[in-house]
Amino acid sequence: MSANERATRALREIQQIPGNDACADCGAPDPGWGSCSLGVFICLACSGIHRNIPDISKVKSLSLSRWEDHEMQFMAENGNELMKSKYEAAVPVYYYKPTHKDCQVLREQWIRAKYERKEFSEPGKNFTYEEGTRDGVLMKRGRDNGQFLSRRFVLSEREGTLKYFTKYDAKEPKAVIKVDTINATFQPEKIGNPNGLQITYLKDYSTRNVFVYHENGKEVVDWFNSIRAVQLHYLKVAFPGATDAELVPKLTRNFLKEGYMEKTGPRQTEGFKKRWFTLDQRRLMYFKDPLDAFAKGEVFLGNRDHGYNVSLGLPAGTHCNGAWQHGITIETPERLFLFTCEMESDQQDWVKHFSDIMSAPMSPQEYTMEAMFKHRH
């Protein structure tokens, strides 16, 4: 057996230690790389980020690189769990810890915050996310012309608002957004910028989208976590008895699914039109274009026991004049919604999501939302 094979075998044994079997930074299973200067096992994607901080992290492949005995010893003595207790000792509860499904900018800033800036190593530090206000410029997509222009944004914990101004010295904001209605989610592909952030909020019971980015990745992730910090503050006031574990899932959330489907109108005699759909918990919204500011419509997905159902295919006799053949029927107490998908795999995926939602029990807030939808439509 060659020295290399021996080293690989030894490293694989160290990987059997609990915690070392998933990436130290994003949790991806079976990491194939290690940082021999930090003593952590990491996945391929995170190893690329570690390579960008070479003075802190020295990365090696577990199977292809040559490992010195002292490096293997270091990995055995440290490992993921021990290093997490050091570098993640004081992560604030609202701070979003990315997973392997999250985009590059979130992962990179998490890794830099941990090892380069050592933000979470000592308890009692003041975090930039908790300063009560945040004031700065973000590039915002214009509602009508689609151009990104610089706009001043101001987040205020005291007021519980995020405002934006069309001119830096404008007295009146263009919009005042209440933080308790905000969702923020990173959308690099859709926005066409690696640091693209979509902010959604409720305006007159309708969902409004704002698309922003900043050239600096740290800046946009700081905005994201500052919004979460202010939201948590408001939730603690609104639900004084609730634990952090109950409140954190109510902060920003990723959409369950997005993509194109075709849909027909309420009489089901209109042609099927291609629309962009966003599934955000129990709200299924549809847009003419993925970057539209307002949804053309929304469907509330309640619980099965209350007359909501989903099935594959379209009702018999439906005149399907669209290009797409893989039908989905959603039944609500008020009406049927008919959709078609281009691919069968997409149809199956949407139906699984709809079915899971309809099987889940509804929260008091969701009952309120359902009543609001019925009142509106």
From TrEMBL:
SMART domains per UniProt: ArfGap, PH
Subcellular localization: Cytoplasm
The UniProt record lists the keyword Zinc: yes
GO cellular component: cytoplasm; plasma membrane
Coarse class of the protein's main subcellular location: cytoplasm
Annotated keywords: Cytoplasm, GTPase activation, Metal-binding, Repeat, Zinc, Zinc-finger
Arf-GAP domain location: 5-135
Record-level Gene Ontology MF annotations: GTPase activator activity; phosphatidylinositol bisphosphate binding; phosphatidylinositol-3,4,5-trisphosphate binding; zinc ion binding
Domain PH: 131-232, 254-359
Pfam hit, one: ArfGap
Gene3D superfamilies: Arf GTPase activating protein, Pleckstrin-homology domain (PH domain)/Phosphotyrosine-binding domain (PTB)
Descriptive protein name: ArfGAP with dual PH domains 1
UniProt keyword Zinc present: yes
Top-level taxonomy: Eukaryota, Metazoa, Chordata, Craniata, Vertebrata
